[in-house]
Amino acid sequence: MASVRPRPPRSSLRIAAVCVAMGCVYGIANFLSGKYYLPGCSFAELRPQVALPMFIGVLYGPLAGFATGASGDMLGYAFAGKGPLFALHWSFANGLMGLIPGLAGRFGARPVDSILSFVKLLLLLLLASALPFALSTGVEVGLGRVAFHNALFSLFLPIFITDTLWAFMLVPPLMQLFGLLIARVEIRTIQAVYYLLIVTVMATWLSSIFITMRERIAVEELYGLGAVTLVVLITGLAVCAVLSKKITAPMLGLTRVARRVADGDYTHVEELKGISSRQDELGTMAQVFTDMLQAVEKREKDLRNEVTTLKIQIDRGKQCADLEKITGSDYFKMLKAKAGNLRQKAGAAER
Amino acid sequence: MARIISVHSFRGGTGKSNISANLAAVYAMRGARVGVIDTDIQSPGIHVIFGLGEEEIAYSLNDYLWGRCSIEQTACDVSASLEGRCKGAVYLIPSSVNVADIARVLHDGYDINLLSDGFRALIEGLELDVLIIDTHPGLNEETLLSIAVSSALLVVMRPDYQDYQGTALTVEVARELEVPKMLLVINKVPASFDAGQIRSTVERTYNCPVAGVIMHSDEMMTLASQGIFVVRYPEHPVVAEFNRMADALSG
């Protein structure tokens, strides 16, 4: 609800304080999830906290996102007793994970008010889950600490797949809470299907993890399956976006034309032809709307033609009779006789 | 050269008082000493436009007509209402807004010859360059007198069927009285009209030159007579129209 929407602080000092606090929350959550992760699978699966630096990035910009992600990761190591500088390349990657969604404002994804901006936001979240950890995993391989095959299946894919899912699931609702996701019809049409897809995929993914643990299925198969699920999710979202656009685009077209008509411009009514040729309810609506606009335009034109030409009708017979009544009075005759004299008197007063 | 300009309309509500006040302001801003006399004794109102409160009126035109004071004593200096832009002076001779005074005029009448003497005394006493008479609508005796003594008559009309017939009668009566200069002004013209078309239609119909076409403006409606338009909105297109009217009337 708009009235109880939390208001993000504005001054840079307050933003810094929020970043530090959120960094601590992220650090503690990292420490806990690092300590108690599910046996038999990667530590990465249960890290919903990745949404936090990403959201701080969207809220306050790339720098704040970076600070939250990097400081939180270092704090996690510190809480675990390893010292904050334990793995600088991973801390840097966590920082980047907050920085990339921070570019939302620059790419037209903040605020989210259309399907296009929603898709842009998801692309940024996908990038934030992939690029930084591809880099840090690459560093591990480069340093010879882990073989490429293991790095791919035990490090990169678990992080990429689960971070993407958590980000997709948590960042949009947080943005909505802070008024950065505007519930236009466009967004509403996509939202229901969007969460249904995410929850389904999340459930499938987590159940496959448990099955893997019980049946001792190879980790390659699990993450291969994970990658496929992610592709399915993204395809599903893309199809959903295209279908929603098909519903909302005509409404936006109608709105655009209506706004022009409000300004007195009827030249864009032709644009509705494409919409009114549809066989569905929107087509009917566009047809009715077009008919209405044509009728209004005609009426307006008729009215304008009526009033712009001034017509004056005078009853000359009545005028003569009235004139006779006034000029025939004794007073008028006296006045007329004196008028010249009176004017002369006034003239004498003229300086 | 002092001039007596009567501003008249056959019907009320045409904006006669507003036009009188704005014309007075235009002349005074050019440096003239201007008198404005409210002869609409039965429904006075122009004092509001000049921001003159009822309590500030010591003597009104009624007092002069009933022999209680001289005409000069009724003149109020309202130059301050031009907000520092007055290069000459503006004097207002208000009518009484007292209900009993208005009733007495309606009942008893007055010696209208005093009016013409008053006009002359004002011009002499206040050394006026221009005297603008804001008349009573219709064609009663004091209005006919005002028209008879004027060197110029400005007839105000609206593009409204209520005004057409009466304006024609006024124009003919003024012709009978041989007013040296008669001009028409069309006021409160809706924006959908074409000013040029209106001007030519009116000039053709009444066989009388049109000095100005004043289009309806939201600013003027919003001002609602609480000030002088040409002073408040010096950049508004209507101001140019008032200046042209002032030129035509004094030329």
What are the secondary-structure elements of chain A, in order, as H or E? Answer: HHHHHHHHHHHH
Count of beta strands of chain B: 8
* CATH class annotation of chain B: Alpha Beta
Corresponding CATH architecture of chain B: 3-Layer(aba) Sandwich
- Rg of chain B computed from alpha carbons, rounded to a whole number of angstroms: 17 Å
How many H/I helical runs of chain B? Answer: 12
User: What is the approximate shape of chain A?
Assistant: elongated
Q: Kindly report the CATH topology of chain B.
A: Rossmann fold
Could you please describe the fold and organization of this structure?
The complex is a heterodimer of chains A (351) and B (251). By secondary structure, chain A is mainly alpha-helical. Chain A has three domains: 7-254, no CATH class; 272-308; 316-343, no CATH class. Chain A is 74% helix and 0% strand. The longest helix of chain A is centred in the C-terminal third of the chain and has 44 residues, at 219-262. The mean pLDDT of chain A is 86. With 251 residues, chain B is of the alpha/beta class. Chain B is 44% helix and 18% strand. Chain B has twelve helices and eight strands. Chain B has helices at residues 16-29, 46-49, 61-65, 71-74, 99-108, 113-125, 141-149, 161-176, 195-206, 218-223, 229-232, 237-250, and strands at 3-8, 33-38, 76-77, 89-93, 130-134, 152-157, 181-189, 210-215. Chain B has an eight-stranded mixed beta sheet with strand order 3-4-2-5-1-6-7-8, with helices on both faces. In chain B, helix 1 (16-29) crosses helix 12 (237-250). Chain B is globular. Chain B starts with a strand and ends with a helix. At the A-B interface, helix 10, helix 11 and helix 12 of A face helix 6, helix 7, helix 8 and helix 9 of B.
